[in-house]
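During the no-cost extension, the postdoctoral fellow (Dr. R.K.) reprocessed legacy sequence entries with the updated structure-token encoder. One reprocessed record is reproduced below for audit purposes.
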Amino acid sequence: MFAWLVTIVLQESPVMVGVAQTALLLPAMLFMLVGGSLSDRFGARRVAVVAQSLAVIPILMLASILFLEKLSFNLMLVYAVCIGTLQAFVTPSRDAILNSVARGDIQRTVVKFTLVQFLTQICGFSLAGFAQRIGGVPIVLVQACIIALGAWSLSRVPQVHRRQEQDSVSIGRDVATSIVDGCKTVLKNPAMRAVVLQNLCVGVCFMGSYMVTIPLLIRDVYMGSSADIALVNLINSMGLVFTIFMLLVSRRLRRPGRALLMAHGIGALFLGAAGTGVSFLFFAVLLFGWGTCGGVAMSMARTVMLEHAPEGLRGRVMGFYSFSFMGSGPIGAMLWGVVSSGLGPKTALMMAASLMFLVVVSFSVRSRLWRM
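Re-encoded structure tokens follow.
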């Protein structure tokens, strides 16, 4: 919906599409680590419930703007900043809860979590595909209801971390100290350090390029609509779900680090090929292939982080995990938006994929991930 409103309804330029996606991702860079620290201090469930409940407000405001036909680029920027800020608090808190609800193998729990996440995302993409026919208001209202349902569901999770008995005056200092502690914990552990570093590259090369170039390709090369944007995203998510389901029914992967790197390397080949100007059908097939690789990569990255995260620092560690790719996403969105403006979205996508492939080769040779 966000990509459709900015790219097709408002008909913004590639640079402005990059600016809009940056506004959506930038709060993660600023607040993700704070969100992880607060989840350790006040309890992951409490922070997740409050942040997700507040997320209903900007979504209802967007519905009102669409109903009144007052949509503008500046209002979309305000919406993006609000949603992005709240997401920065929800994501690390939600990830920190995973260990407390896991029964047995954490890798299997992560795979189940990711499967549910993308199955429901497919439903969302399917619904968004009707935006051009029925308008954005009904779809955004459904989104608000689902976000509220998610907040209620999170409230049903048993509270594990209790609030520390400290003066409210010291919250700022304590959060700063906890961020530093979390940073030291991640950087001292070779496995977590390698995942965070490669995730920084994923945010720039994969997330940033995908969010900017794919809507531009659909608009400018394939002359598509909201249904086409939804279809491509749905097919990509189907690839993720397919792989995750295969992981769920198969045995535990013995080397999650190696699987992570191989998935990113093969995914870079799929994504680069999608920028070569192939037919729309083959374009969608290639993004399905990229999605299958993403299912492995996301599951294995979360697994490595959760297996190595200390109990009392899990929120901060998962904050760094989320920050490592969502925080670098704005850089990628701006970078590939500018490249798309000068060289076109096809060239920008191929350049991003090629850069990520070189990063994977480097990590395979120099880091311990290949042996994990």
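The chain is about 85% helix and 0% strand. The two ends are 39 Å apart (CA to CA). The remaining legacy entries will be reprocessed before the final report is submitted.
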